[in-house]
Target: Threonine/homoserine efflux transporter RhtA
Amino acid sequence: MPLDATLRLLLLSSIWGASFMFMRIAAPQLGVFSTAFFRVFLGGLGLAAILMVLRVRWDFRGKWWRSLLIGTVSSGIPFAMFCIAAQFLPAGYSAMFNSATPLLGVVIGASFFHEAMTRDRLIGVLLGLCGVAVLLQTGPVAMNRELLFGALACLAASACYGFQGFLVRDWITAKGGLDSRLLAVGTQIGATLMLAPMMLGEVWSMPSLDAWRDIEAWSAMLALGVVCTSLAYLLFFRLMEDLGPVKPLTVTMLVPPFGVLWGALFLDEEVTWAHLIGGVLIAGALWLILFKTPAPRIAAAEEP
Model:
């Protein structure tokens, strides 16, 4: 892998690893749906501004509505689920659960899209589940209802990412394709439209908006939208162009260490051997799925 691509991959991993820390800061203050809404809203604005600077022609080639629907699956629901999880889980936990995306992509592909379930993929799924179980049972957070609820929210988000890859393949790629930058903007607009009524309902039900005066929460929110969404999308799609659809998926293995690192450095989250053991099991599972066998074509679904 070229040095410049390797550096961009590490930068992208660190950015997406930091997104879980920012959600952990913003969601308790601004609200679950408000955090998810402003992330996609700011991310969409940033991408739209970049496309205007680059003078990209806004021609969705009849795929506008498909882009919006994909956005609800690829960004709207997952971001809301991760913000829910941020109420209960350390940032490092959410980052590690996010790495289950390719595992769930294999199961989804075999169950709904006639993808082959090979022996290596099956072993990879089982190994990944063992990694998740280790983290849940022996991690620094006590096993209780809140931990389980947060874990299920993360896995629901990862399942959405798995579905999104196949939807992009069937609705976009198989229909003649679309400029990936336009697809990125379209998905953020779709997610914004989906989350807007939920955000308004959440704000309406709040007894007070005093928490919205928190400068730290809005700073984290700005980082989520501009850096972890707009900039991260551009980095990821550039890697896709340079390296093809498989190698950029190594970001899935690099995000969890960064998520754990940022949580430990800036949120004083505890790091234990469970993180290492669970991470090694999940990394082994990803290697079996992404490199030992043909990838399940979920390359566009890895944003946390």
Remarks:
- Residues 295-302 have pLDDT under 50 and may be disordered.
- Residues 237 and 301 are 11 Å apart (CA to CA).
